[in-house]
Amino acid sequence: MGSLEDVNDLRGWLELAGEMGEVTTITGAHWDREIGAASEVNYKRASPPALLFDDIVGYRSGLRVLTASMANARRLGMTLRLGTDLDDRGLVEALRTRPGEWVEAAGKFPMNVVDSGPVVEHVVAGGEVDLLAFPVPKWHEGDGGRYVGTGCAVFTTDPVSGVVNAGAYRMQVQNGGRAVSVNMEAGKHGAGHVREWFAREGRAPVTASLGHDPLLLVVAGTEVPAGVSELEYAGAVLGRPVDVLLGEVTGLPVPAFGEIAVEGWLYPDRRELEGPFGEWTGYYSGGSEPVLTMEVERVYHRSDPVLLGAPPGKPPHDYSYMRSVMKSAMIQDALVGCGLRGVEGVWAHEVGGGRQLLAVSIRQGYAGHARQAGYLASQLPSAAYMNKFVIVVDADVDPRSLNDVMWAVCTRTDPAEDIETMRQTWGSRVDPLRAAGLPPFNTRAVIDACRPWSRLADFPKVAEASRELTDHVIRRWPDALGGTR
């Protein structure tokens, strides 16, 4: 079997994942909804495999689409270079303190500019551009079009500092394949870069990778701190710089070992109707709205490229597991880093898309500790976007178990005393509760589901077997109780 050190691109990733028995190939699916529906069914399975679609209807063999790349612990652990045989608990343990360490080390791994790479095996320019030459899926039945960018990494740059940002923004094919809309949330770093370029130059340069080592999707899809380049953050994870080419038109980076990339400019008045699209909240995000659209000036691609798909939808979806794991680790690091004592664990629940429902476990040390933990967690930069509920529980409650968390809410929360709300916080355009035309605010609740501080000494004991007794009976009857001999 190959090793993690051998993985340098999506093809190396696929080879190793295949050797691990983690990839299933599906042939003969149609780009129109069948790829999306098959992927959706797969996400609901226990420990779903990655799906590689080939012989797609209307396209020649070899033009492929990959989904569910990181939908279980083994493949996410592999992608993060933490190991090839991790389970959920092992992955969480392996990630402790890592996000903070990667942020600190990022500056040591500036992107490595090279002269050539596999991604420029084929270069298509100007009037020859046709993104529909690739099997771009229509992912959901109600989508407004075909989305080439779901597992993408969109690169922008700060016009003053030159810091490169990578974000995962949905990208709909426009104008028969010659253009692509880039739907950026207003509060994201990439959108800020674009506004600054518009103010300075009247246009904004953009490149986007559409198939790559899934690690780039991880860093593009999570909140890396402002001022830290996602490419450098990825380099810290890898332990070596990421190789990039500079685009012929904009000079922005393109991953040298990518599968497909596009390049062009955004203009303030160049917009096309985009959407609706099945989003990570589990709902279609409204109707069609004018969205910034790039006339694609260059397409770069390898021979027989693989499009990396990561369509959202009702959880669990393609990247909900990845986001839950990464956000949990980043939020826990941030809570500890800001000086909060007694943090035992954090979990950003998949049912909330890894954003809307956070559980924080603490070992209470003083009056007000639980509320402090809840308020801090609700507004940390790594947690604030689209957060709806923060539930703080005691150290005896597993924050990863929604059953245990809600048991704590039912037995330790007084609704009149222990639920507090904040209004006009950072929401999203994809929130199904947002009325059309209104600013994307949301309201969030902090729920104190800890034992009351004043009753710690006399609060009723939990009616549950001790860990020692549980381990004892599992050792005695491993076959019947699901243990190991």
From TrEMBL:
It comes from the Bacteria. GO terms for cellular component: cytoplasm. It holds the Pfam family UbiD. InterPro entries: UbiD, UbiD-like_C, UbiD_Rift_dom. Residues 115-315 form the 3-octaprenyl-4-hydroxybenzoate carboxy-lyase-like Rift-related domain. One of its GO terms (biological process) is ferulate metabolic process. GO terms for molecular function: carboxy-lyase activity. PANTHER family: 3-OCTAPRENYL-4-HYDROXYBENZOATE CARBOXY-LYASE-RELATED (PTHR30108), FERULIC ACID DECARBOXYLASE 1 (PTHR30108:SF17). This is UbiD family decarboxylase. It comes from Actinacidiphila yanglinensis.
